[in-house]
Design brief:
disordered N terminus; alpha+beta
Length: 397
């Protein structure tokens, strides 16, 4: 995990939150320090600028609202003078501080689930609203023409684009996580962490299934046909083995750029393609990647070098076992997403990770409503298949 990036994300949420945040850019107010201490309780690796973590959830609750009996009321007179001097110190302060801490722990946990849908996402965009998104792929220029500047001017390069475009919508997904007064009294922070991890897993699972659906269900391309077709030259029917794998790689290398017609090609030095297999084929996938050679006939006389030896990583790091595949025999190859457009994804306001939003609880005098705080787990995104040239699939009957 990139801890530097994680810490930057935490700083952004803790110190620049639009709801309940102070907007501080220099120094830390007493309320800022308490927010940082609560985040550090959930994420010990957080650089809190010297602020110690709270020792318990109940200690944090009492410090934010002075409610030593944890009865749900706000007692600002029982808190420090410095804290009361903060303009944004209210009965909601604890609820929003806990929102920040939960969101950061959620973001950290969300990244830990290896569903590998990122191998399909070639572009991530930030959407400003829920209006329909139009995805248009730009084509390629051909060879640059010869020019004689003394005889004439340079001619303009025509912008070549596909006539077809993909359209899609963003879709909000989520639910409510309840933190009860009893959980705070019992200081059940491990329970809260477990619940947040379950929420992170559900969010990542939902996102992964959404992206993998383009591959698994042979989604429609911008040209109006399915991703994997004989017309596209990326559909096979042979079981996973050495020769069919070479066929798949060769087919993808022979794909041509839209507009220019030039072959996409194959660069073995920078090869970062992925071999996708269902759980039932993981051993076969590893074998075809690891074997240095194989016999071409049953009499074990003709030994052939394996052209795919370690092509998908010396430790099989690019052998992707897709847990969502319902067919035990289908397999495929996905090009590096840096090579060609595959799946385009958009996230509302660029929020790629799910987040918690305080939905129910605080009033002007009460920290809880019905002895609980409600946090909305929300994730908003949508996507479309941008082109067919990045994938080959063998659908084995």
């Amino acid at each position: 995990m990139n801890h530097k990036k994680l810490m930057q994300d935490i700083e952004r949420v803790v110190f620049y939150s639009g709801i309940g945040g102070s907007g501080a850019t220099a120094g830390m107010s007493p309320l800022d320090k308490m927010r940082a201490g609560l985040v550090k309780l959930f994420c010990p690796e957080f650089d809190s600028r010297g602020v110690a973590a709270f020792t318990s959830l109940q200690e944090a609750y009492v410090s934010f609202g002075g409610d030593e009996s944890v009865n749900g009321l706000w007692y600002p007179q029982n808190t420090s003078t410095d804290l009361r001097a903060c303009m944004d110190f209210t009965a909601s302060s604890f609820g929003y501080a806990l929102q920040n801490a939960l969101s950061m722990y959620l973001s950290k946990a969300y990244k830990d689930f290896p569903y590998r849908e990122e191998i399909l996402i070639s572009e991530r965009k930030s959407a400003r609203d829920f209006r329909k998104i139009h995805s248009v792929q730009i084509g390629y220029f051909g060879d640059l023409p010869d020019v004689d500047p003394e005889a004439g001017d340079y001619e303009g390069l025509e912008t070549i684009g596909d006539d077809e475009e993909a359209q899609y919508d963003l879709s909000p997904k989520g639910g409510i996580l309840w933190i009860t007064r009893r959980v705070i009294i019992n200081d059940s922070i491990d329970l809260i962490k477990a619940l947040v991890k379950r929420g992170a897993r559900a969010a990542r699972l939902t996102h992964a299934k959404y992206v993998w659906n383009f591959y698994l269900n042979n989604a429609t391309c911008p040209d109006g046909t399915a991703w994997f077709t004989s017309g596209h030259g990326n559909l096979g029917s042979d079981a996973l083995d050495y020769a069919p794998l070479v066929t798949a790689i060769t087919a993808l290398a022979n794909m041509t750029e839209p507009g220019s017609g030039e072959k996409l090609g194959l660069d073995l030095q920078s090869f970062k393609w992925n071999l996708v297999a269902p759980i039932d084929l993981w051993a076969t996938a590893v074998k075809t990647n690891q074997a240095g050679s194989y016999y071409s006939s049953n009499d074990l006389t003709d030994k052939v070098p394996n052209a795919c030896h370690h092509l998908f990583g010396a430790n099989n790091e690019r052998v992707v076992v897709c847990p969502f595949s319902t067919d035990a025999n289908d397999w495929g190859v996905i090009r590096d997403v840096e090579d060609v457009p595959i799946v385009e994804m958009s996230y509302l306001n660029g929020q790629e990770n799910p987040e918690f939003i305080l939905e129910s609880g605080p009033t002007e005098e009460h920290v809880f409503t019905a002895d609980r705080l409600g946090y909305k787990l929300r994730h908003e995104y949508g996507g479309a298949l941008a082109g067919y040239r990045g994938g080959y699939k063998s659908i084995v009957s």
